[in-house]
Write a structure and sequence with these properties.
By secondary structure, this protein is α+β, with helices and mostly antiparallel strands. The protein has one helix spanning about 70-85; strands at about 10-15, 20-30, 35-40, 50-55, 60-65. It has one domain (about 5-85): SH3 type barrels (Roll). The longest helix is centred in the C-terminal third of the chain and has 16 residues, at about 70-85.
């Protein structure tokens, strides 16, 4: 998806431990087993999607890393949501 498919407040920059930074569009927030997760689409021309735990804070939100078992559950739910008609 192109960068212009997202409004300015729907784009955030991820920065990894190795210093790599790139923009992602917020695809959506969804729930799995009572917890919120966020799907981020890389806007670097790849088809990469990043999944994180989502925790609202007083003035923004926090991204939470997922352990492998949780990631597998969240990824499966995300895939099923992608299969649903709009």
């Amino acid at each position: 998806m192109a960068t212009n498919a997202y409004s300015e407040d729907q784009i955030l920059t991820l920065e990894f431990d190795d210093g790599v930074r790139f923009d992602c569009g917020i695809m959506g927030i969804f729930e799995v087993e009572g917890k919120d997760y966020i799907a981020l689409e890389a806007l670097d021309g790849s088809e990469d999607v990043y999944l994180y735990g989502y925790k609202p804070t007083e003035d923004d939100f926090e991204l939470l890393a997922l352990d492998e078992p949780t990631f597998e559950k969240v990824a499966a739910e995300f895939e099923s949501l992608q299969d649903e008609p709009l």
